[in-house]
Design brief:
Strands 1-2-3-6-5 form a five-stranded mixed barrel. The chain has a five-stranded parallel β-sheet with strand order 8-7-9-10-11, with helices on both faces. The protein has four domains: 102 residues, OB fold (Dihydrolipoamide Acetyltransferase, E2P) (Beta Barrel), CATH 2.40.50; 156 residues, 3-Layer(aba) Sandwich (Rossmann fold), CATH 3.40.50.261; 42 residues; 40 residues, no CATH class. The protein is elongated, with a radius of gyration of 61 Å. Helix 4 packs parallel to helix 8. The chain is 42% helix and 21% strand.
């Protein structure tokens, strides 16, 4: 930035003592706004007027209360589809334009056309593939519905056929069923916001065990709120099991992909969420009958088993076993006594034989036959002696002390 430009910018500073002129402010706004680029905008066409000077209208947001004015002068070269009318859903290429004379901001139209069915279908298909790619429609994410919900949350249009179908069919199946109903727009620009609020409200209620979002049939455009990305992601993140019952069998908005259960109609939703009391009573009766038959069969088998056990000899005559064992003990006792007596006799005979053998080998027996044992003074048996030795002679009845007088060698 050179010095002259810096001085110029400094002179543009607004202060209390050096305020801008309105024209100066308008020119600055105009210069700044006209530097903004073009932008594609989608919305609902409102206040549509074709004047001699050009086209004037406004585009309203599809979800919230917000609108902008748009215009296109004749000979401006804007590419505008023929046959547009108020209420059409359009896409427009706009550029902001500020009118310094009256301080009004409008949007200049460079191109505008009606959103066709093919384009909507293409957008929905892209969103569908994105949801599938993120795994929001995966079967493992589906929550199981409770068998008998404590309270059912219902999101539907006020006084709608869908509401009546759900409530009537649910109460026919289970008269004690309880509902928490929140009414909402089910088509149009307010639908998505109200549906999101109702869903968040019911999901935050701990007594609500399952949520049904129901609506009757309608055109493709009428059912578009149920394919809105914000609503689809809110359903996917819902902690409470969610049932989608939108339109008829052939209607498949994108919330069907992420719902825990997709019902073909509101009536079908009531049948899928609430069990039939009559059918359940029949099932209970059948189960009781089967249980009774099973118990009777088990009792019969066990009774036959007891009869079979009681017929066994050991139980028919409880003391027979004891008597048999006592008899066996008596036999064993006799056998042991016989063995013991035999071994005693045998042992006595062996002792007698040993005594006789010992007696036959006894030195005393030898002495009784006239033999004698001669020992020297040290008590050793003498086998030879010499004259003068003192000897001790042991006979059967005497011990004789002698001295050797004479030795004769043999």
């Amino acid at each position: 930035m050179d010095t002259s430009e810096a001085v110029e910018n400094q002179s543009k500073v607004s202060t209390e003592h050096s305020p801008w002129q309105v024209s100066q402010l308008s020119k600055s706004l105009k210069d700044w706004i006209e530097k903004l680029g073009r932008v594609w905008v989608e919305g609902e066409l409102q206040s549509y007027q074709e004047r001699p000077t050009g086209l004037f209208a406004s585009i309203r947001d599809l979800d919230v209360e917000a609108a902008i004015e748009i215009h296109a002068f004749n000979q401006s070269g804007a590419e505008i589809e023929q046959g547009l009318k108020q209420g059409d859903r359009v896409v427009a290429l706009l550029q902001p334009q500020f009118w310094a004379k009256n301080g009004k901001l409008t949007m200049r139209i460079h191109a505008m056309h009606k959103v066709g069915l093919g384009e909507l279908l293409e957008r929905l298909e892209r969103l569908k593939q994105q949801i599938i790619a993120e795994g929001l429609a995966a079967p493992e994410r589906k929550q199981k519905l409770p068998f008998l919900p404590n309270r059912i949350g219902l999101i539907t249009g006020a006084n709608s056929d869908a509401e009546k179908d759900v409530l009537q069919n649910a109460k026919l199946r289970w008269p004690e069923v309880q509902f928490e109903v929140i009414h909402s727009h089910v088509q149009g620009d307010k639908a998505v916001g109200e549906l999101l609020f109702a869903l968040e409200t019911l999901d935050a209620m701990p007594e609500v065990d399952v949520i049904i979002m129901a609506r009757g049939g309608g055109s493709f455009q009428d059912l578009l709120p149920f394919s809105d990305e914000r609503l689809v992601r809110a359903v996917a993140n819902c902690k409470t099991p969610f049932v989608s019952a939108i339109g008829h069998e052939n209607d498949q908005p994108l919330i069907d992909l992420v719902a825990d259960l997709r019902a073909s109609t509101p009536t079908d939703a009531a049948k899928r969420v609430v069990p039939d009391v009559l059918e359940e009573r029949r099932n209970i009766s059948v189960s009781i009958s089967r249980l009774r038959q099973r118990l009777e069969s088990i009792l019969t088998i066990q009774e036959q088993l007891l009869i079979s056990v009681r017929s066994r000899p050991v139980l028919a005559s409880p003391y027979g076993f004891i008597d048999a064992q006592a008899e066996q003990l008596t036999i064993l006792y006799r056998r042991i006594a016989e063995i013991f007596a035999f071994r005693l006799d045998k042992g006595a005979h062996e002792i007698e034989q040993l005594a006789l053998r010992a007696h036959s080998l006894s030195p005393q027996l030898t002495l009784s036959r006239g033999y004698a044992v001669i020992t020297d003074a040290k008590g050793k048996v003498v086998s030879s002696a010499k004259t003068g030795d003192k000897l001790s002679i042991r006979t059967q009845k005497q011990e004789i002390q002698a001295t050797v007088d004479q030795v004769k060698e043999l």
